């Protein structure tokens, strides 16, 4: 499961970097609001989820009205994950209103610290002790994120509380995802004791859980549409700059978590720091300083070195497995 999981993780990192840049383009260049993008984009993602849900539905999966205990095992963590995901997304969009995507994106790697602590202590998840090498990998990723943030223009103070909420929301969403995927695999594919799901089954379960979570956020967006939506077709078109890449990440991220778990999957997500730095440098050099600051060469070089720490963390985690 390692190789397909790593491929999915790297694709997720690239798609997230594009989505963050699209979010900043929408709010800064197109003068849209963060709440408007949050609502419109998640309605669009909800439509994708509604189409994908019946196509990815495992035949043996139980609904709560069929078996309350069996249904709650996968539905409750999926709904909780959707709720905290919505909160995290709102905080992220507001932070991108005030700071470059290439600055905010690396800071999201600090989510690893929350995940590593939660899995080690057994908080909201089965206890998963992390070895010394694992903590070294987590530390490398976090050092890289701090280095990238410390080089160049730091985010304003009002962004930090938003980033903190985003980190906590994403971390507990990730844990909920893995819990729901495990339950879907056990029920949906009729796996007995001692039988593990195949790569295809775990990816299918991950895609199905993704449709549940984004179905939840899509319904929330639909409810908020009268207040924060838009009737102009160009707003819905411009929101695709975020929703399009995020829809790709919606599939690849949950496939990564299904195959590799929340912590290793998040280490792979950390490589988005490198993609965000490179994309930000390209946009800044292209002259669109309103979206990304055009940093000097030494700043870019320092950020690439810092991002290399995150790549090293991925390699170390992969070697451990």
Summarize the structure in words.
The chain is mainly alpha-helical. 78% of the residues lie in helices and 0% in strands. The chain has twelve helices and no strands. Helix 2 crosses helix 9, helix 3 (68-96) packs antiparallel against helix 7 (159-188) and helix 6 (132-150) runs antiparallel to helix 12. The mean pLDDT is 82.
Distance between the termini: 10 Å
Shape label:
globular
From the alpha carbons, calculate the radius of gyration and give it in angstroms. 19 Å
Largest sheet: number of strands, sense, barrel closure = none
Fraction of residues in β-strands: under 5%
Number of strands: 0
How many helices in DSSP terms? 12
> Portion of residues in helices?
over 70%
Structural class, by secondary structure, is mainly alpha
H-E string: HHHHHHHHHHHH
**Low-confidence stretches at least 5 residues in length (pLDDT < 50)?**
none
User: pLDDT average, as an integer?
Assistant: 82
List keywords for this structure.
12 helices, 321 residues, mainly alpha
Provide a quick synopsis of the model:
The protein is mostly helical and 321 residues long. It is 78% helix and 0% strand.
Q: What is this structure's SSE topology?
A:
Blueprint: H1 2-29, H2 34-56, H3 68-96, H4 101-107, H5 111-121, H6 132-150, H7 159-188, H8 199-228, H9 233-260, H10 262-269, H11 272-285, H12 297-320
Helix pairs in contact: 1-9, 1-10, 1-11, 2-3, 2-8, 2-9, 3-7, 3-8, 4-6, 4-11, 5-7, 5-10, 6-12, 7-8, 8-9, 9-10, 11-12
